[in-house]
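Q: I'm building a small set of examples for a reading group on sequence design. Run inverse folding on the following structure and report the sequence directly after it, with nothing in between.
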């Protein structure tokens, strides 16, 4: 293997040392594309040896089974070949060579029921910071066989996250050999061309740069998109190709449902390269001193769509009555992906890559982008969430992009 001078050897040494030489808990943290998951593949293969002295279940854990497949298994399967594994995405059962594995999703604290009562010898956890604390601790209690090992990889989070305070910062765990922690950056990945690394550094700004490029555990504060937003993203008139028949590849509308706060529609056009936020509709019941019904909002939506009313409309999952009203009208409705942190990064990534363009006439959205801030009171408790005041247009923007745009669109 051709490794960069002074880099990669510590990752290589960890990846290929024997399981019995590892600590009980092994956590790899750091930047995106630093090779964290790659370093766990040899561990998975060694743990798949049926002659291994470590007994108990083998489990692969992530926030969802789909994320485990995309982040861990897909590349592993390409490496070992179709003849050496069998996998059911429905049941989560996996066979690597002759060893049985179980794929588990740990979306919330209730997920601990999947491991309660089991005996686990090997656990591999993808994106540990997204796994609930209760599940992680329950998982450790089930790892009773001699030589049991837990391996985890993750990008950093805020500095008060339980993984950092309860494990990574506990020097006594490292001194006793119970915990091994390896911090990695893209410079540790020998397979990445230098120009790719430099390009990745340009795609992240602010707190996202500190976490995903430098691998720092930092608290987000202030305006969420202040480092990614730039007035150069504004436009006055759409390019001629944008709305020409057959020249755009997609059009959709996102919604933030309003009762005692503004009701928002945003219209997006996608030409395959850039996404253009072209129009906005906002009904602020506080300003107008009148709340509209679901039926009236549906009427407004149909009018906002115009003659081409066959486009997709993305509605928040909690807006059940409005979604049903739209379905009854024959409107093509899908449920918004309202994940907060990943959604914020999607918007920031599109801005930083200059792939999002906003029509200057969308004044409420522009104001919302510039005033969308982290909640300072929750930050004091180690919770990172946007301040839920005057956030309707920004939330609608987040729904509209994160529900449609995959990471490759802005990460090269």
């Amino acid at each position: 293997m051709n490794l960069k001078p002074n880099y990669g050897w510590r990752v290589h040494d960890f990846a290929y040392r024997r399981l019995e030489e590892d600590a009980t808990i092994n956590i790899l943290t750091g930047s995106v594309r630093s090779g964290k998951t790659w370093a766990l593949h040899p561990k998975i293969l060694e743990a798949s040896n049926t002659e291994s002295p470590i007994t108990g279940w083998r489990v692969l854990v992530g926030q969802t089974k789909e994320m485990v497949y995309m982040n861990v298994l897909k590349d592993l399967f390409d490496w070992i070949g179709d003849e050496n594994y069998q996998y059911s995405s429905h049941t989560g059962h996996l066979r690597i060579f002759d060893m049985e594995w179980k794929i588990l999703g740990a979306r919330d604290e209730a997920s601990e029921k999947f491991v309660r009562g089991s005996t686990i010898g090997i656990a591999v956890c993808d994106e540990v910071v997204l796994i609930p604390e209760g599940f992680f601790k329950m998982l450790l209690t089930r790892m009773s066989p001699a030589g049991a090992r837990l391996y985890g990889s993750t990008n950093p989070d805020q500095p008060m996250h339980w993984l950092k305070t309860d494990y990574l910062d506990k020097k006594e765990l490292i001194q006793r050999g119970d915990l091994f922690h390896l911090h990695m950056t893209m410079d540790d990945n020998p397979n990445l061309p230098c120009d790719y690394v430099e390009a990745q550094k340009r795609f992240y700004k602010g707190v996202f740069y500190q976490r995903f490029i430098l691998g720092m555990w930092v608290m987000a504060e202030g305006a969420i998109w202040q480092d990614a937003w730039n007035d150069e993203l504004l436009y006055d008139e759409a390019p001629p190709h944008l709305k020409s028949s057959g020249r755009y590849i997609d059009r959709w509308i996102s919604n933030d449902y309003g009762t005692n706060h503004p009701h928002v529609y945003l219209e997006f056009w996608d030409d395959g390269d850039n996404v253009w936020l072209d129009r906005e509709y906002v009904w602020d019941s506080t300003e107008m001193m009148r709340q509209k019904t679901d039926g009236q909002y549906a009427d407004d939506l149909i009018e906002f769509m115009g003659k081409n009313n066959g486009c997709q409309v993305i509605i928040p999952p909690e807006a059940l009555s409005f979604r049903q009203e739209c379905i009854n009208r024959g409107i093509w409705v899908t449920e918004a992906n309202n994940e907060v942190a990943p959604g914020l990064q999607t918007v920031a990534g599109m801005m930083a890559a200059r792939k999002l363009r906003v029509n200057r006439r969308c004044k409420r959205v522009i104001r919302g982008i510039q005033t969308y801030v982290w909640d300072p009171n929750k930050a004091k408790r180690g919770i990172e969430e946007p301040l839920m005041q005057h956030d309707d247009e920004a939330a609608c923007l987040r729904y509209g992009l994160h529900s449609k745009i995959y990471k490759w669109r802005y990460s090269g």
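DSSP finds 16 helices and 15 strands in the chain.
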